[in-house]
Input
Amino acid sequence: MKSTSRDIRLRNCFAVLRHLIADAPTSRQILARETDLSVATVSNLVTDLIELGVVVEVGREDSGGGRPRALLAPHAGGGVMIGVDVAETYVQLEAYDLALTVVDRAEERMEASETSPDQVIGHIAAAMDQVRGRLGDRAILGVGVSLPGQVDVTWGVSGFAPNWDWHDVPFRRLLTERLRLDVPVYLDNPLKTITVGELWFGDGRGVDRLAVLILGTGVGAGLAFGGQLYRGATNSAGEWGHTTIDPAGPQCRCGATGCIEAYVGAPAILRQWDEFGGRAAGSQTEAMAALAAAWEAGEPAAVRTVETVAESLAAGAANLLNLVNPDLVVLDGWVTAALGDALVPEFERRLAAHALEAPLKAARLKRNTQERNMVALGAAALALEGHLNRLNTVGSRSRR
Amino acid sequence: MKSTSRDIRLRNCFAVLRHLIADAPTSRQILARETDLSVATVSNLVTDLIELGVVVEVGREDSGGGRPRALLAPHAGGGVMIGVDVAETYVQLEAYDLALTVVDRAEERMEASETSPDQVIGHIAAAMDQVRGRLGDRAILGVGVSLPGQVDVTWGVSGFAPNWDWHDVPFRRLLTERLRLDVPVYLDNPLKTITVGELWFGDGRGVDRLAVLILGTGVGAGLAFGGQLYRGATNSAGEWGHTTIDPAGPQCRCGATGCIEAYVGAPAILRQWDEFGGRAAGSQTEAMAALAAAWEAGEPAAVRTVETVAESLAAGAANLLNLVNPDLVVLDGWVTAALGDALVPEFERRLAAHALEAPLKAARLKRNTQERNMVALGAAALALEGHLNRLNTVGSRSRR
Ligand SMILES: [Zn+2]
Ligand SMILES: [Zn+2]
Output
């Protein structure tokens, strides 16, 4: 519970750099106005960010009579962060510059039979080799990896990955050894990395109380307060997918019944479509695309499925709104991308029947419409946050 | 989202003073160890707290060879805070010294017919007159008032008080005028004041992620992160009582169905006892005491009621655990006091069937067993927090 000037400094640094990435080129004066910090505070932070190689001066602008102001930008030619999205069927690895632009990527397909840590790490290593070859001697500042399941971020351990039946796998150590990495590796799960991605490069930027609802094969939420990811006591915060909306409801894979995930997770959506007489065939993503197309064509089973799922989603989201009272709710995840045109308007319409008036009015609703891989972006942003933490150990501490 | 050194300073000040109140007499060195702050930081804060009249040196202790250390204590002879608990049937007003010890109190009964702001304020004024007379010229540092319903804390307005059908009553202005107060008045609802009370004088002291479940006529939760009350975007956070655990469930007074409050609020508990064949007679509190006695005597309807209510409570609490992942859950409110011996063990037993393993293991469970009025205490603590805010405007800013 200790609060230090280092925490404050880091939080302000995140805010300044997020605005800088969004609005570059920009000036210390504009950054001060946008972050609500003093010009002196921003100037100190910017000096340190320049010293750290994260920010550069790119020119000067006329300030209307006064002294021309220096223009700042992220140091796009500086180091890169690696973000890795490890899913059941693929590994996507992306390299980002300090403006969080993708500078390179590699993808590996994984077979369902490849479930050992060695096999998964093998695919990451193969993707990394490709990208490292092309990056040449450009410095890697850090590596962020998103792994499904429960992750112990302090120890870099995969506590439990249900798809692969992993228990307490020392993933960070294994990965660091295999890749012969001499930079920090940050591990977390997709709920967390997507939320960090939203803070750095999505609608969550500058939002004080953020909730991200992530709809995919699994379902969960990411919470962030004051521009920082909220992890809870044991990094389990956001298990919204396993909150109950009806104890008499269907069985959930977590062992309980009537969890939100048992209604709005991809398998549950496709099961409902099937029960209403639709035809969910092919892979999960193919079937979800077919459902979206059937809804578009007005197929009654598809329309009914979307309505039913929207109703469950509204009940679950209202619970979160009433308890957390966020400023912004972002819908994200591959199911949102695939079925959002149908689902999101139905969901919004039904929310008022479940949420209290005050939190409903307070919460803006957004759907992530970025084409980017927010899991990999957020993993890379975790590495960037780790790198920025060095602000507190290098350079100009005397100025503070 | 701006984070300033003032925020940090205030948060650290709260931590230091909370330990000081709990452990007095104590030294700067022990406070530093307990708060995990540096001795220099603690010393600066203590100097300012002394200057503000909140803390005094009360002696010296031998430090085992070294220089004797000054012993510190809250300035119990200094100013007082007033905490007011406004409920449907009574007004309880308590005066607290800076050690948060009650130094005086007054109580007024209210008739069900007394529903106008004027009548309620009249009772507060009558209680205040009694206490002010006895306090003599002892300085009042601030007044905190807990009002049922929705409160706009910034403007001091009761946005909505359902019992009295109040809408947008400028309560703080009316109270300040009527009482001719020249000290700050802080307004909030019982969910918030009880939680602040737990932070200052309960099990929540020093806890990073705290959830307080408040069981009474209404039901709700208080959340606190980093030692500070979490209000949400519009001070509506914690409306846990109106999260749904079964959409097909009973009607709730909020308009929705199947809210937790519709299962575990006092009227719902007594209704269930009735339905199971019990005899809920007399006032709500009398009937609840009768239910507790019947359970103690093994009356089957009472046993079944407690089991059913515990099951609903466990489902609702598990949702909060899974989403928020707190370090500590405190059960509070008058129903917890009246029925806790029966309800709490049944509740704890059932929680594992609903909560995920990680958040369940992380959360300690406590029942508030203090005999104190936590609503009034928390309201007074809000006034104390307001007074401490002056740290940032008076005295020794140059030392920071
Ligand atoms: Zn579940
Ligand atoms: Zn309700």
